[in-house]
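During the no-cost extension, the postdoctoral fellow (Dr. R.K.) reprocessed legacy sequence entries with the updated structure-token encoder. One reprocessed record is reproduced below for audit purposes.
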Amino acid sequence: MTYRVAVLAGDGIGPEVTAAAVRVLRAALPGCSFVEAPVGAAAIASHGVPLPDETLQAARASDAILFGAVGGPGFEGVPPQQRPEAALLALRKTFGLYANVRPARAFAGLEHRSPLRAEVVTGMDCVIVRELTGGLYFGAKAILRDERGEYATETLTYHDFEIERIARFAFDLARTRRSHVTSIDKANVLVSSQLWRRIVIEVARDYPDVTLAHMLVDNAAMQLLRDPRAFDVIVTENMFGDILSDEAAMIAGTIGTAPSASLGAGPNERGFGLYEPIAGTAPDIAGRGIANPSAAILSAALLARFSLGEDDAAWRIERAVADALAAGPRTADLDDHAPVDTDAFTTAVIARLPSPVATEAAPRCGV
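Re-encoded structure tokens follow.
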């Protein structure tokens, strides 16, 4: 099989970590071809807009997007639609990428990096399924003025079909894992959450083999710290998912190992998606060649699984990253004594790639 991947490296450490992911993906799947296109602040500098037409065309002609990061200094006070981050929101909307999948796993050998005690975090393995195209982030926004002065308003809107499809995504994913879904909302205060909870309960009737629990978001933030191993699949709305997924990543020890997939099809369907590490542009270390590429490489594994249907390649990449993190060498964010640079870590991952196996024999490490 031959595949085409659009590489939108973006800003900061984005080009460095996506280059590492491309190296690993090429080693695991020699049939992949890659086309690069500008996005974010880099695209504003070269084309005057964060998402040029040529970049959209490159994405449309590809099986998936491997994304780096967007953002940077100098955009304070700029309207949201002209900021680098607008490119990411536009891509999600253009391709209908409504489901964000963020695995949060405590890797063996890194338990000491967690802010929690090792015995609390060891064995943590959950996935946060975040609704990605609704809620406050996409609602109407305005800065207005009345007799009392200036004020801001934002609209939180969810349609029933948006809640139903993300709930079904979560239940379908749970069936491939430990068959437990925790739905996070704020139903004691927000009417949007009351609709959310009612529809999730309705969807759950179609999945009698999956256990459903409900949790208010403030309690969920506490329970993730108290016992992160208690969670399997978490499903929640856009803003809550944005916050809780970063918390879960840091519980695991570092945001540098946290991948994500943004999908427009169910977890058991091969479809177009956008794959990115969630660490951001990290401008303080950009260009120094020391960024941890683990999350970008693991995002490439998710790309292989969800968009290319290559479960074997996905498992091999995930296994190689886990082995490299367990035994070393490691990058500076994970090694205080003898760290290696981005390229050396990537080489270590490629050297640990297992031989291909039958797809049905490949377990799912990342999700």
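The CA atoms of residues 41 and 84 lie 5 Å apart. The chain has a mean pLDDT of 94. The remaining legacy entries will be reprocessed before the final report is submitted.
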